[in-house]
Amino acid sequence: MTLFEVLVRLVLVLLCFLVLPLVIGQTEHKVMGHMQARVGPIYAGGFHGWAQLVADGVKFAQKEDVVPAGADRRVFRLAPAVALIPYMVVLIAIPLGPGDLVGRSIDAGVFFVLAVMGVGVLGSLMAGWASANKFSLLGALRTAAQLMAYELPMLLAAASVAMAAGTLSLTGILGEWQWWWLPWQAVGAVVFFTAGLAELQRPPFDMPVADSEIIFGAYTEYTGLRFALFLLAEYAGILVLCALTTVLFLGGWHGPWSGDVGWLWTLLKTGLLAFVVIWLRVSYPRLREDQLQKLAWTGLIPLALGQLVLTGIVRVATA
Amino acid sequence: MTRMSKFPGAGLAKGLAVTLRTMTKRSVTQGYPEVLPELPPRSRGVIALFEENCTVCMLCARECPDWCIYIDSHKEVVPAKEPGARDRTRNVLDRFAIDFALCMYCGICVEVCPFDALFWSPEFEYATEDIQQLTHEKDTLRAWMWTVPAPPALDERAEEPKELTMARRAADKLAKEQAQAASEASGASASEASEAPEDGTP
Amino acid sequence: MTAHGYFSTYGLVGLVLLVGAGFVAAAFSANRLLRPDAPSVEKLMTYECGVDPVGEGWAQTHIRYYIYAYLYVIFAVDAIYLFPWATVFADPGFGATTLVEMFVFVGFLAVGLLYAWRKGVLTWT
Amino acid sequence: MSALAAAADLSGSGGPGFLSPTGAEVAFVLIGLVVLGSALLVVTTKQIVHAALWLVVTLGGLAAEYLLLTAEFIAWVQVLIYIGAVVVLLLFGLMLTRAPIGRSAELDSASKWPALLVAGAAAATLLTVVVDAFHAAYLDLGETGDGSARVTGESLFRVWVLPFEVLSVLLLAALIGAIILSRSRGDDADRRR
């Protein structure tokens, strides 16, 4: 790889990281609005309020940076970066199209992605603790409890795909992918996507930021740009989760004419999943803490284990 | 959930269907600043003052639950019209203000006013950036009088309003008196002629 | 994969990490130039729905919550072994035996989960 | 850290000399210093949550060291298990019990000198053993792939199957132990009420 190529890839990853979450966020504004018989933002930028999030960003950048007097200043300031950067690092391993259309193919792909994504939650914990606020601390505790319940089904479901493909590399998995993996790995896909939603603290799994109980959980004390970075982390998280589900379970760039427009298939499937994320948010009420734990431990984990058994048997039988 | 559905997850699917269906329909949002809302009849926007009717009886200010009506007045002597009669005094309104930061829009003042000086107006665009400016003086309150709609029409077969009956009765009486006076003035022959056709009617 | 490929891969990962840190740093430098700075005692007070904060952030929580944490760590360690296994179990020379080996491994842990479930640990109290 | 340095040193003419280190070796030493420094901060800081956060730096640095040694799989296990699970468990436990902001006086232990002695002795023992075991080994980073998941899996399921199965029993024992420890004697009565 030449230096120029490296630069191009870095810029592209940064661009994806900055633009696609905004697209998802704007889609959420509009879709959520219409699903609730509203219209969503309509002024900023003229056409259907397309520039609303840009305007929000400009506003956030000009706001005062308030650090509460009782807070642990250093940890408080560092937390948004810890929450945000892992999602960006993960993007480099996700293949967009066939061949070389990937930031960089990593041998331990799935494993790398899951490990790095898990670091992001430290940001929420740090924020919750450093704020010196009861709501924030409760939010951090709930975040940790939720992570512990849902990281496991996510790992197990991802392992199922790795078993099917016989490799951990994301490009390798897509290379092996066949259409009949869709029904074969369907349970795993549902488990993975659900657990991912819970890790992102998206409704209906938004107990850690339940606004009617604990204001905004770990992010209660944040203002201005730091708050904006937490929001960006949430939407980047949606992007990563949807892209990862696409690659692992929906065949990524596979589809008609995938040789030419493979990248379009990836984007399309990712976009569709992002729509589902928004759709679920509008449709379902928040789960209670006991329901959350019950769903994970007695629902998703047994399902994921069942999927593992099924994958193993089918794979050995057809080998 | 009161009733268990046949398939597990049928309720979840139903929830998704509802939101998806709503998305395809037109939204109910009103484009307010551009498109003014169609307010329902008798909307309570603001309280207007018909200053000419006010007699400074202070009933509204006294009945107001949160004391948001301020009234100042002075007495004025009206000289007697006829010689020998007594001079009369009357109240002149100096200040009538309502603090809409305190007002809770209960409408008791409108109800108790015995002279129909207070009215509900549907005007609602009087937001300000300063709470002090929400105290509106009588000129503003008088100006809002122009936005008060005409009272809604009565039901088709309803009894006539008392005011109209009284006014008509007074007008009839006046007309009769005038007619009588006119007939007395024109002479006896004319009065007989006019009385003649009345015999045939009961 | 050659050593060169390996190191250039993780070199790129490290570069992305740097770019991310650079992005955050740039955002905050821009923020520093644009934002006002007018702290006041009320503004820096901990937010508690408008009333003055009472006590400190910590509140008593039942320690039973902690069992979920233990469960997670133990099962995560278990799940880690699935990944190297997943890459080899269907290769020639492994096959059904390796599958059974893993089933035994997972089976032991499933017994643990069952035990936890029967003991009522998994039901919220 | 010193294993590789020692290996490079003792291997003599076998491999490249330690006087002209490669980029990876330089990075290894630098990250090693970071790990050492943050590890010292873990035990010397007076703020308990800061100790846990410095532990993240230490463990992350170790993961980077594994990566430099081409032990790809172990590196990400380190991140996933130690940073993603164990540190989260630690922080969770701290926040559940008590994690004050600011310095706490009780973190200064009277037995810190004996503790230092024990830690030093343990480190010296480990160092001696490692150097003794690998003093002639030279890890040629040119032939990578030794640390990938596939190689790990092959050796695990060809050679080390029995320890692997025993591990599951160990994990089961840990699980049951955790459950029993977390349930005090009066617990069942509480539940029935």
Automatic annotation (TrEMBL), chain A:
It catalyses: a quinone + NADH + 5 H(+)(in) = a quinol + NAD(+) + 4 H(+)(out). It holds the Pfam family NADHdh. InterPro entries: NADH_UbQ_OxRdtase_su1/FPO (IPR001694). Keywords: Cell membrane, Membrane, NAD, Quinone, Translocase, Transmembrane, Transmembrane helix, Ubiquinone. The chain crosses the membrane at residues 6-25, 78-96, 108-131, 152-174, 180-198, 227-250, 262-283, 295-317. Its main location: membrane. It is an enzyme of class 7 (translocase). It is a multi-pass membrane protein. GO terms for cellular component: plasma membrane. It comes from the Bacteria. NDH-1 is composed of 14 different subunits. Subunits NuoA, H, J, K, L, M, N constitute the membrane sector of the complex. Belongs to the complex I subunit 1 family. NDH-1 shuttles electrons from NADH, via FMN and iron-sulfur (Fe-S) centers, to quinones in the respiratory chain. The immediate electron acceptor for the enzyme in this species is believed to be ubiquinone. Couples the redox reaction to proton translocation (for every two electrons transferred, four hydrogen ions are translocated across the cytoplasmic membrane), and thus conserves the redox energy in a proton gradient. This subunit may bind ubiquinone. This is NADH-quinone oxidoreductase subunit H. It comes from Yinghuangia soli. The gene is nuoH.
TrEMBL record, chain C:
GO terms for molecular function: NADH dehydrogenase (quinone) (non-electrogenic) activity; NADH dehydrogenase (ubiquinone) activity; quinone binding. One of its GO terms (cellular component) is plasma membrane. It comes from the Bacteria. NDH-1 is composed of 14 different subunits. Subunits NuoA, H, J, K, L, M, N constitute the membrane sector of the complex. Belongs to the complex I subunit 3 family. It is a multi-pass membrane protein. It is an enzyme of class 7 (translocase). Its main location: membrane. Coiled coil: none annotated. Its EC number is 7.1.1.-. It catalyses: a quinone + NADH + 5 H(+)(in) = a quinol + NAD(+) + 4 H(+)(out). This is NADH-quinone oxidoreductase subunit A. Keywords: Cell membrane, Membrane, NAD, Quinone, Translocase, Transmembrane, Transmembrane helix, Transport. The keyword Cytoplasm does not apply. It holds the Pfam family Oxidored_q4. The keyword Ribosomal protein does not apply. It is found in: Cell membrane; Membrane. The chain crosses the membrane at residues 6-28, 65-86, 98-117. NDH-1 shuttles electrons from NADH, via FMN and iron-sulfur (Fe-S) centers, to quinones in the respiratory chain. The immediate electron acceptor for the enzyme in this species is believed to be a menaquinone. Couples the redox reaction to proton translocation (for every two electrons transferred, four hydrogen ions are translocated across the cytoplasmic membrane), and thus conserves the redox energy in a proton gradient. InterPro entries: NAD(P)H_OxRDtase_bac/plastid, NADH_UbQ/plastoQ_OxRdtase_su3, NDAH_ubi_oxred_su3_sf.
From TrEMBL, chain D:
The keyword NAD applies. Its main location: membrane. It is found in: Cell membrane. InterPro entries: NADH_UbQ/plastoQ_OxRdtase_su6, Nuo/plastoQ_OxRdtase_6_NuoJ. Coiled coil: none annotated. The keyword NAD applies. It is a multi-pass membrane protein. The chain crosses the membrane at residues 26-44, 51-69, 75-96, 116-139, 159-182. Keywords: Cell membrane, Membrane, NAD, Oxidoreductase, Quinone, Transmembrane, Transmembrane helix. One of its GO terms (cellular component) is plasma membrane. Belongs to the complex I subunit 6 family. NDH-1 shuttles electrons from NADH, via FMN and iron-sulfur (Fe-S) centers, to quinones in the respiratory chain. Couples the redox reaction to proton translocation (for every two electrons transferred, four hydrogen ions are translocated across the cytoplasmic membrane), and thus conserves the redox energy in a proton gradient. This is NADH-quinone oxidoreductase subunit J.
